[in-house]
Structure formats: structure tokens, C-alpha cells
Amino acid sequence: MMITILLMACITFFTRYLFLHRALPFKVGPKMQQFLSFSAPAVLTAIWVPIVFINDEGINLDWQNPYLSAAIVSVIVAYKTHNIYYTTLAGMGLFIILS
To answer: Which chain regions cross the lipid bilayer (predicted)?
Structure first.
């Protein structure tokens, strides 16, 4: 198990290294940079949507769902403050209170 984790860490590091090291003759064009700018939001959305909306019984859009309530509050706080710390504290705080 540990060897798998170490190998995956090496693969992840070296694939990032190719894009970040200045001495390597590899350049990403502007179209590829624009395309890659969508990867972080896509990955984050793929992570949080199932957590917030889906439980053992299926789709959960009930107001008693602490994940949904905390996500809504987090979106509102993020929109109003543009501060990652306030957003995280508000979402986590409400989630802890509700669960």
C-alpha cells in the first residue's frame, strides 16, 4: 500500500515539474493555458457536488441536510466577503452546529 502511495506521489510531482521548471524547453501556449484554467473548478465541483447533494437514499435536497445548508451559507459568505477564511469558518461552523 505504501509503495503505491509513494509511486503516485512521484508521478504527480514529475508531471507538475514539467510545467513549472523554467529550465525545461517546454512551453504551454495561450490556448492550452486557457483550457487548463478550467481544470481546478471542474475537479472541485466533481468533489463537492456528490458530498452536498447525494446520500444513501439518493438525492437529498431537504433543508435538514447539513451539507446543503452549510454550502449555501458558504456561497453567500464567499460572494459577500471574497475572503476564504470567513467562507471556510462560516461553512464549517454551521455544519458543526447542524450535525
So the answer is: 35-55, 67-98
Contact by Cβ (8 Å): 73, 86: no
* Cα distance between residue 99 and residue 51, in whole Å: 14
CB 43 within 8 A of CB 35: no
Residue 7: all three cell numbers together: 509511486
CA proximity to 74, closest of 43, 42, 40, 51: 51
**pLDDT tens digits, one per residue of 36-95:** 888 889 999 999 999 999 988 889 888 889 999 999 999 999 999 999 999 999 999 999
Whose cell is 521548471? That residue is: 21
